Every structure is written in structure tokens, then in C-alpha cells.
TrEMBL record:
Molecular-function GO term, any one: 4 iron, 4 sulfur cluster binding
Residue ranges constituting the 4Fe-4S ferredoxin-type domain according to the UniProt record: 11-43, 65-88
Functional note: Component of a complex that catalyzes the oxidation of glycolate to glyoxylate.
Reaction catalyzed: glycolate + A = glyoxylate + AH2; (R)-lactate + A = pyruvate + AH2
Enzyme class name: oxidoreductase
Organism taxonomic ancestry: Bacteria, Pseudomonadati, Planctomycetota, Planctomycetia, Pirellulales
Record keywords: 4Fe-4S, Electron transport, Iron, Iron-sulfur, Metal-binding, Repeat, Transport
Entry keyword annotation includes Electron transport: yes
Gene: lutA_2
Record-given protein name: Glycolate oxidase iron-sulfur subunit
Length: 434
């Protein structure tokens, strides 16, 4: 079949039609798809969604609410890419299709509702705004008012998505302060790297940024932290707001001096995936610049594994399990590197997690916008964690850290949920995990 003629009202018109044809509908992707594993609906499987998108693109199917819901329910975890023997680039189909679907919508754009405008777009991408907005939450946590409100009839006065947001907040720790612009290598310099700090992660997990920087220093890295960097743009892009995401991307092009560093390092899987995809999201005059930037981006575990980790000496006598963040394992194909680093920590026993590569339900802001499916996947992840007997869960994405921690609180069995860099840092500093 020939690709359809260009049509600005067709959400698939701007997509390379050959990407649709790569899918031979064999179905080997279905077992890896979280939504299909949960509801068994073929329309909620990768091949089902590709069929829907292609049918809309061909003009054989109307772009109606039902079709839209099947596409919106996709977590964009890209587990299907890992499973596909034909090399289907599912992310290059679902992401631009949903962006166009949102832009062409006339009456129900989700990016224009109050929650997206005020919270997801107006608050999350701006760390200083977020920090200020969390002061009431800090006070509420100290006084126990947050649990009181969420467990009382008063919660009915709070919009459901704000309730979700409140329930996801971890115990807010003391802010260790911003990273300095330059952190010099310890010992013989081996590399010079820039560190991407992001938005939500810099507010919720700044202590992990500090841990990451210290681990890099211990491994002979000069660490540069550009102060003009901004959000990676994933929050906007995955909600269908392409232009604001591009503006943020281009600000990051200006913030990082690529000639001055060996790599741009990221410790959040979702951000890393977005940064590595800068080169193909927007085919315009700056595409080559974005491709060059994307080529410098590495996950911190990926980089340290390539560099060769200087083994830490402090013992951590704990049993942990590692959850593969979707946008690290599937989007970036980084799986073994974090495990190899963790296995070099003396005393640490690492147990494999059943269904480790199945999404926990976080998926960026999915757990705020699709709560039912997100909760089902969180419970599935929790049951698999229980099977390991581990009391420490390690994962390399801010969203996963928040999602799994929330489920552990809901189950009344709080676990330690940490980033790989947190454990490496403790081992280098010879400190226990509290």
C-alpha cells in the first residue's frame, strides 16, 4: 500500500510510513506490554495500537474517542521495542502520532485542562516554583496533617488528581542545597563531564544528585553543572505539547558547552531518554545541533561502566532487588551496566526481580493522568518485589522511585527505595543505609 497524501488533519501524515510497515503483526510484543498484560485487549497491545494508527493514517478508520483512548492508555514504556524481532521503532510512531492527535483535537485537548496548565506545565518543569510550592507540604508532613486529610472525609474537598499528587509525595528531606557549578575530580582526572539535573528530580531527589556528583568525583571526573539548564521537555512532549518542549530543548542546547566535556550525564531514565531523542523529535533548522547534543548524552551508569568503576570499599550488608526503569532498559537499552556497578559494592546481595522490565505504572506523569491502570501496575510490581524477600529496591528513575515508594506505603510495608548512585555513594563514604 502506498502512504497517504500529506494531510494536516491526519495525525499520521507526518510520520515516515515505512515505520508502520516494519510491524509484521507477529504478536511477540504482546507479552511485554503492561496494558495488554493487565486487560488482554488487543487494541491495548503494541501491534493493536500500530494497526489503529495505520488505519487512521490510511483513512480506513475514523479518529474517534474510542481510538484515542486506546492510544492514550499506552505508557510509552517501549518494552515492545525490546521484544520486537523486526526492530519496530514504536516510540517513533506513538509519540509523534499522539502529539499530532493532541494538536488537531478541537474540543477535548488534555493539555488545556487546569491540571496540565497549572501543575504539569506551570509547576513541574520549574524547580524553584516547585520548591516554593512544597513548603506547605513540608509543614503538613511535620504535623501529620497530610495523612490526616487523606484519611478523612476532608479528602473529598480536594480534586482527585491533587489527591494523587499528595499521596505520591515522599517524606520531604532537608534540602542539601544546589550543586556548585564545578566539582573537581578526586585523584587523577579521567574525564570531564556535564551533569543534567532536570526539574522534578532536582526538587525531590537533590540528595541523589549530590550522591551522583560525589561518585563521579571518586572516579576521577571533573563535574560541570550548568546553571542555565532547564527541564528536558518530556513532560510537555508526552502530553502532546510539542512546541514548548522544543523551546526547552533549545535552551538546553545553549546551556551545555559540548566542546568542553566528554559527555552530558543523566541519572533520571526518563530525562535521559528524552535528551537522547532530541535529534529526531523536531526536523527543522536546528535538528543537526540537537543530534550532536543527543550524541553526547549518557546515563551515569552507562558512562561509569564504560569508564571503568573504581570499586568502592565500604560494606553494605543488605539484600536488594533492581527494578529496570522502562526508559533506561527499553528506550536506552541500558540494563547490565547498573547491575555490574552494584555488584562491586562489598556485602551487597542483589536478587533478580521477576518481571523487572514490566512498567511500575509511573511512566512520567501517567500515574497522575491514568490512575486506574497505574495502580494495577504498581500492585503487580509490589507482588513481584515481595517474591524476592528484599527490603531495598534500587531503580534509576525519579518516577519509579516515587511510584514504588507510594505503593509500599499503601501496603503498610515501607521499603528503602533508592537510586544506584545512592548506594555507591554510601559505599565510597563507608556509611550505612539508614
Amino acid at each position: 500500500m502506498q502512504p497517504p497524501a500529506a494531510d494536516k488533519t491526519n495525525p499520521g501524515a507526518g510520520i515516515d510510513y515505512g515505520l508502520f510497515l516494519d510491524c509484521v503483526h507477529c504478536g511477540l510484543c504482546t507479552a511485554s506490554c503492561p496494558t495488554y498484560a493487565e486487560d488482554g485487549n488487543e487494541n491495548d497491545s503494541p501491534r493493536g495500537r500500530i494497526y489503529l494508527m495505520r488505519a487512521v493514517t490510511d483513512g480506513r478508520l475514523e479518529m474517534n474517542h474510542q481510538v484515542k483512548r486506546h492510544l492514550e492508555l499506552c505508557l510509552d514504556c517501549r518494552a515492545c521495542e525490546s521484544a520486537c524481532p523486526s526492530g519496530v521503532q514504536y516510540g517513533k510512531l506513538i509519540e509523534p502520532f499522539r502529539v499530532a492527535m493532541e494538536e488537531q483535537s478541537t474540543d477535548d485537548r488534555k493539555s488545556e485542562d487546569w491540571f496540565h496548565r497549572l501543575i504539569l506545565f506551570g509547576l513541574f518543569p520549574y524547580p524553584e516554583r516547585m520548591r516554593k510550592s512544597l513548603w506547605p507540604a513540608r509543614i503538613a508532613q511535620r504535623l501529620g496533617l497530610d495523612r490526616l486529610v487523606l484519611n478523612s472525609p476532608l479528602r473529598r474537598l480536594i480534586p482527585s488528581r491533587l489527591q494523587r499528587l499528595m499521596s505520591l509525595l515522599p517524606p520531604l528531606k532537608k534540602d542539601p542545597g544546589p550543586l556548585p557549578r564545578v566539582l573537581p575530580a578526586i585523584g587523577k582526572p579521567r574525564a570531564r563531564v556535564a551533569m543534567f539535573t532536570g526539574c522534578v528530580a532536582d526538587v525531590m531527589f537533590r540528595q541523589t544528585h549530590w550522591a551522583t556528583a560525589r561518585v563521579l568525583q571518586e572516579n576521577g571526573c571533573d563535574v560541570i553543572v550548568p546553571d542555565s539548564q532547564v527541564c528536558c521537555g518530556a513532560i510537555h512532549y508526552h502530553a502532546g505539547a510539542s512546541d514548548p518542549a522544543r523551546e526547552l530543548a533549545d535552551q538546553n542546547l545553549q546551556a551545555f558547552d559540548l566542546d568542553d566535556v566528554d559527555a552530558v550525564l543523566v541519572n533520571v531514565a526518563g530525562c535521559g531518554s528524552m535528551l537522547k531523542d532530541y535529534g529526531h523529535h523536531w526536523p527543522d533548522a536546528r535538528q543537526a545541533e540537537r543530534e550532536r547534543f543527543a550524541g553526547k548524552v549518557r546515563d551515569v551508569s552507562e558512562f561509569l561502566d564504560e569508564l571503568g568503576l573504581i570499586p568502592p570499599q565500604g560494606e553494605l550488608n543488605i539484600t536488594a532487588t533492581y527494578h529496570d526503569a522502562c526508559h533506561l532498559a527499553h528506550a536506552q537499552q541500558v540494563r547490565d551496566q547498573p547491575r555490574r556497578l552494584l555488584k562491586q559494592i562489598p556485602g551487597l546481595k542483589l536478587k533478580e526481580l521477576p518481571e523487572s522490565e514490566i512498567c511500575c505504572g509511573a511512566a512520567g506523569t501517567y500515574n497522575l493522568t491514568e490512575p486506574d491502570m497505574a495502580d494495577r501496575l504498581a500492585r503487580r510490581k509490589w507482588e513481584n518485589i515481595k517474591k524476592t524477600g528484599a527490603r531495598v529496591v534500587v531503580t534509576a528513575n525519579a518516577g519509579c522511585l516515587l511510584q514504588i515508594a507510594r505503593e509500599s506505603r499503601n501496603q503498610g510495608e515501607p521499603l528503602a527505595i533508592v537510586h544506584p548512585m545512592d548506594l555507591l555513594d554510601l559505599s565510597y563514604r563507608r556509611q550505612p543505609l539508614n
